[in-house]
């Protein structure tokens, strides 16, 4: 090739070493080359760990742009930093023979801290953090960023740190591995760790043909399996996923792992296939992990890197949190606290003909005070499917139920026998139901079954929408916040209160938490 091959690289010491290694191999084949160093976002932003930046291809994007602009002909990367899906028009042109695949612990003085209950390890990698905490759950992880030399210096300067973790290939290539270092053979490395990848433009056939002369087939087979495993788990370089494939005795061996961020949950997979029969290895292993809870773990991890944009004024269960659209990151807390009251026995001396129950809290109060046999109610009227279900499980058959209190009041006016009802309610309740009944000459005996206390918090500025489940949750929110948000409401009574404070109010199809979640998801499609 007569033209000079422009080699794009990051300008860190390790990246330059890798680029110069490729440059030397190309020049040994008789090609003219030029190094073109550039800075990446990953090199410029050093105050946060990688997984908090939430950017895929943080170390490769600048080089991709340079290549697409024809400023460089090829780019040299640490393979583990390259996204599994390359930009349109850019392809993997070659991989260089792999170096040491292990992670290495660099420590101070000695290794005695490994058996201690408390120790501090510095790493900016979520994968390393999760595996370390899985093995040493009482240890502390400190965030660290920067190039190899700056991280080594930070370890020396920080008295509270016992060690930090590097890719063995990295510290070995630039000759800075200290004596106080051990390989962590129990830690599964990042997919494609220890390998150098060359990328090129897909339509530059001449450059791609030259790069193929540098390609190491065994390394290519192994890192392609690892990268496909990562891709099928939908994980970027910020996910706590480890993968390692190697070839021995004409067999491809694979081991992979997915962990929760704190290391408390771990899913492992291993697989051995004959070389040449390994095509489905990555798919099999990824499916194995997914079927054993991997999808749920990945969904949780993805949400953790996003800013919270929705707040629930009622604590959500784990299964409810998993129902959210991937664009939603929700936090939740109870904005109201419930205190059950004592209900006086004289109220239950005789059978009560007509009883109104509008919440599960009232049911809880009744069954806390009395047994089902003592709760003698002829007709029970309630609001909401879940309240109805709980009443029928704990007290007795429900005569009729409606979606909201106003609709129930209108029904009772027309169809109820008698002219008196007993209403088990909160100290804070809407006026609709008792007002409608009393206006139609139905006497309402209110029994304060429980008290509602406001216990809201001030939410972050990133919150775009808030989920409300009762007028009280709306009131609890506005006591602490004056932000304009989208109000996602469980029913009409809640929406009526929300409209006093917010311009955009939306109502769920049915009065359940899951229906409010569906309402949120529809907004973020």
TrEMBL record:
What residues does the Tetrapyrrole biosynthesis uroporphyrinogen III synthase domain cover? Answer: 342-517
InterPro entries, alphabetized = 4pyrrol_syn_uPrphyn_synt_sf, 4pyrrol_synth_uPrphyn_synth, HemC, Porphobilin_deaminase_cofac_BS, Porphobilin_deaminase_N, Porphobilinogen_deaminase_C, Porphobilinogen_deaminase_C_sf
Enzyme category, top tier: transferase
Q: Which residues form the Porphobilinogen deaminase C-terminal domain?
A: 221-286
Name the domain of life: Bacteria
User: What molecular functions are annotated in GO for this chain?
Assistant: hydroxymethylbilane synthase activity
Q: What is its EC number?
A: 2.5.1.61
PROSITE patterns recorded: PORPHOBILINOGEN_DEAM
Q: Which residues form the Porphobilinogen deaminase N-terminal domain?
A: 5-208
> Looking at the Swiss-Prot or TrEMBL record, what is one Pfam family this protein matches?
Porphobil_deamC
> Under which pathway is this protein filed?
Porphyrin-containing compound metabolism; protoporphyrin-IX biosynthesis; coproporphyrinogen-III from 5-aminolevulinate: step 2/4
This protein's UniProt keywords: Porphyrin biosynthesis, Transferase
Swiss-Prot/TrEMBL cofactor(s): dipyrromethane
Instruction: From the UniProt record, list the reaction(s) this protein catalyses.
Output: 4 porphobilinogen + H2O = hydroxymethylbilane + 4 NH4(+)
Q: What does this protein do?
A: Tetrapolymerization of the monopyrrole PBG into the hydroxymethylbilane pre-uroporphyrinogen in several discrete steps.
Assembly information from the UniProt record: Monomer.
> What is stated as this protein's family in its record?
Belongs to the HMBS family.
Instruction: Identify the NCBIfam families for this entry.
Output: hemC
Instruction: Return the protein name.
Output: Hydroxymethylbilane synthase
Q: Which species is this record about?
A: Hwangdonia seohaensis
Gene field:
hemC
């Amino acid at each position: 090739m007569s033209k000079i091959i422009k080699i794009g690289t990051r300008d860190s010491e390790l990246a330059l070493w890798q680029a110069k290694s490729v440059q030397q191999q190309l020049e040994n084949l008789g090609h003219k080359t030029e190094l073109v160093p550039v800075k990446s976002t990953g090199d410029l932003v050093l105050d946060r760990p990688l997984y908090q930046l939430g950017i895929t291809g943080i170390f490769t994007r600048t080089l991709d742009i340079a290549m697409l602009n024809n400023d460089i002909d090829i780019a040299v990367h640490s393979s583990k930093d390259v996204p599994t899906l390359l930009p349109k028009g850019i392809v993997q042109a070659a991989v260089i023979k792999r170096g040491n695949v292990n992670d290495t612990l660099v420590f101070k003085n000695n290794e005695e801290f490994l058996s201690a209950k408390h120790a501090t390890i510095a790493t900016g990698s979520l994968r390393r953090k999760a595996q370390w905490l899985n093995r040493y759950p009482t240890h502390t992880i400190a965030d660290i960023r920067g190039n190899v030399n700056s991280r080594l210096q930070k370890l020396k300067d920080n008295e509270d740190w016992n060690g930090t973790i590097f890719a063995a290939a990295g510290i070995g290539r630039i000759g800075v591995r200290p004596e106080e270092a051990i390989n962590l053979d129990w830690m599964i490395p990042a997919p494609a760790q220890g390998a150098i990848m060359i990328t090129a433009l897909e339509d530059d056939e001449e450059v791609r043909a030259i790069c193929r002369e540098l390609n190491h087939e065994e390394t290519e087979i192994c890192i392609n399996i690892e990268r496909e495993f990562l891709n099928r788990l939908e994980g970027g370089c910020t996910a706590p996923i480890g993968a390692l494939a190697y070839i021995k005795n004409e067999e491809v061996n694979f081991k992979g792992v997915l962990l929760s961020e704190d290391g408390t949950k771990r899913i492992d997979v291993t697989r051995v296939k004959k070389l040449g029969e390994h095509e489905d290895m990555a798919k099999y292993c990824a499916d194995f992990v997914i079927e054993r809870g991997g999808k749920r773990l990945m969904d949780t991890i993805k949400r953790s890197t996003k800013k919270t944009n929705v707040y629930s004024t009622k604590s959500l269960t784990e299964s409810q949190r998993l129902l959210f659209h991937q664009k939603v990151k929700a936090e939740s807390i109870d904005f109201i606290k419930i205190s059950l009251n004592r209900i006086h026995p004289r109220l239950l001396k005789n059978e009560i003909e007509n009883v109104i129950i509008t919440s599960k809290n009232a049911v809880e109060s009744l069954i806390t005070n009395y047994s089902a046999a003592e709760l003698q109610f002829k007709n029970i009227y309630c609001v909401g499917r879940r309240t109805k279900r709980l009443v029928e499980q704990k007290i007795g058959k429900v005569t009729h139920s409606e979606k909201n209190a106003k609709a129930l009041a209108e029904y009772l006016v027309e169809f109820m026998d008698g002219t008196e009802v007993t209403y088990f309610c909160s100290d804070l309740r809407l006026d609709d139901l008792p007002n409608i009944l009393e206006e139609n000459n139905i006497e309402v005996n209110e029994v304060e079954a429980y008290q509602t206390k406001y216990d809201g918090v001030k939410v972050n500025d990133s919150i775009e929408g808030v989920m409300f489940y009762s007028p009280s949750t709306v009131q609890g929110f506005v006591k602490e916040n004056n932000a304009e948000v989208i109000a996602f409401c469980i029913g009409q009574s809640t929406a009526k209160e929300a409209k006093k404070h917010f311009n955009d109010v939306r109502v769920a199809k049915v009065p359940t938490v899951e229906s409010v979640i569906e309402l949120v998801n529809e907004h973020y499609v």
